[in-house]
Write a structure and sequence with these properties.
Belongs to the IFIT family. The protein has 444 residues and is mainly alpha-helical. The protein is built from 23 helices and no strands.
């Protein structure tokens, strides 16, 4: 590489770093998280009937994920589809709406070593922004907000801020209003939602629903907040109205299944999932939803007393075996199948799933590894009655210092053994005290 080319390469990168696009929005998560999100977006895009204002954003984000995971060809294919969707959905403001898209293209060509093409897109962005009052137009704030909200739960509060910035320039935009309502409602953990905050969320969702009454996610989130605020009957009535019409796009479908499970019955969620799958028999997403509905019912207290429970378990096993082939990299789906095997009495098959996952744990994201250890420890305790080995694995889960429900579960399991005074109680106390460094456990 010549000195002149090296300087040109570095100069181009400096320009690229100033662009507003996915490559500069700090979306650098672990490979497993990126793969999981890629699968989710593929499901959304492949849903029949999905052609919405966000289709261009979906493809832009999917292109970034493909590139981050090493598939430039797929990235360029998605970028082409993104431009087609943006031109179709934003005819009045198409050029500014392509600012993020051109930024992505500039970065992809840069990584390919195609500096002339990269510089061409950098200059395109420069010309588009030249006559704009702001270096970050509202449409750019909007796409950044949508991307952050979709990308990861840790980005939700930043997404809310970006939606607010986008709405400053276009306060009546229904797409932005809906996006803001969703991001705001998802930016707080359930335990942190006060009555005042719940009322504010409900109001944002009500306004968004008036602007876009066909938006399923908005409608379902609205009825969930209604139920949470005590208006259960009104929420149920609205839910029944929603499912009277065939659902051809599955955004928000998981939410409405959860609503029926929680506020109506397990059978109603199963029935809805089955009816929808009959219209879309090739949808892997719907197969996964139905499998989850089976799982929820199998583990419900009332179903455990049902003498015919084994039939539902067998249906769940068969469906989960298919879903695993459709989502071969999904840890959650594999763990669900192992649980179904355990419930069906095929403990050896559940063992095999855990053995394979443990062999493949190299490079696994810490939170996924923590989840695996926690679930395996439970499996050893309940399915294998191997208390000692279960303790060893619970310790591995607790050693991963991430504040998650899985770590809390393993921590409590170890504390329970201490309280019961088991053979390894003293060892566990030393282990837990060593983690917190203050001897807190020994004070019990």
């Amino acid at each position: 590489m010549t000195i002149h080319f090296s300087f040109y390469f570095l100069e181009t990168k400096l320009w690229l770093q100033g662009l507003e696009c996915h490559f500069t929005w700090k979306l650098d998560y672990s490979r497993s998280k990126l793969e999981s999100l890629r699968e989710t977006l593929i499901d959304i895009i492949s849903s029949e009937g999905v052609q919405c204002s966000w289709t261009g954003h979906l493809n832009n984000l999917l292109a970034y994920l493909h590139h981050a995971l090493g598939s430039t060809e797929d990235a360029l294919h998605c970028l082409k589809k993104a431009e087609e969707a943006i031109r179709l959905n934003s005819p009045d403001n198409v050029e500014l709406s392509l600012v993020v898209h051109y930024g992505n293209l500039a970065w992809v060509h840069y990584h390919q070593g195609e500096l002339t093409e990269s510089q061409t897109y950098v200059e395109k962005v420069g010309r588009l922004l030249q006559d704009n009052r702001s270096t970050c137009p509202g449409v750019v704030w909007g796409e950044r907000a949508w991307t952050l909200n979709k990308f990861h739960v840790s980005k939700r509060k930043e997404a809310v801020y970006c939606f607010r910035m986008a709405l400053k320039g276009d306060p009546e935009n229904k797409v932005l209003r809906c996006g803001y309502a969703i991001a705001f409602s998802k930016s707080f953990e359930r335990k942190d939602i006060t009555p005042k905050l719940r009322s504010e969320m409900l109001e944002h969702l009500r306004i968004a629903r008036e602007l876009d009454p066909e938006h399923l996610t908005i409608t379902v989130m609205y009825l969930q907040r209604l139920a949470d605020s005590g208006q259960v009957e009104e929420a149920r009535k609205l839910a029944e109205e929603v499912i009277e019409k065939p659902l051809d796009s599955f955004g928000g479908f998981g939410l409405i299944l959860s609503f029926f499970r929680e506020y109506v019955s397990h059978d109603s969620s199963i029935d809805l999932a089955r009816r929808t799958m009959e219209r879309h028999p090739d949808s892997r997403q719907l197969k996964k939803y139905l499998a989850q509905c089976y799982k929820w019912k199998i583990f419900s207290p009332e179903e455990k007393r049902n003498p015919m429970r084994h039939i539902l378990i067998e249906n769940a096993v068969n469906l989960y075996e298919e879903v695993v082939t459709l989502y071969p990299k999904s840890l959650a789906v594999k763990l669900d199948l192992s649980a179904m095997y355990k419930e069906s009495g095929r403990v050896d098959r559940a063992d095999k799933i855990f053995e394979d996952l443990l062999l493949d744990r190299e490079g696994m994201e810490p939170q996924d590894l923590q989840t695996l250890y926690n679930r395996y420890a439970q499996h050893l305790h309940y399915a294998k009655q191997d208390a000692s080995r279960s303790i060893d694995i619970h310790k591995k889960a607790v050693e991963i210092m991430l504040p998650t429900g899985q770590r809390d579960n393993s921590y409590r399991a170890l504390l329970s053994i201490v309280h019961k005074g088991g053979d390894r109680a003293e060892e566990i106390v030393d282990f837990l005290d060593g983690l917190d460094g203050e001897g807190a456990v020994r004070q019990f």
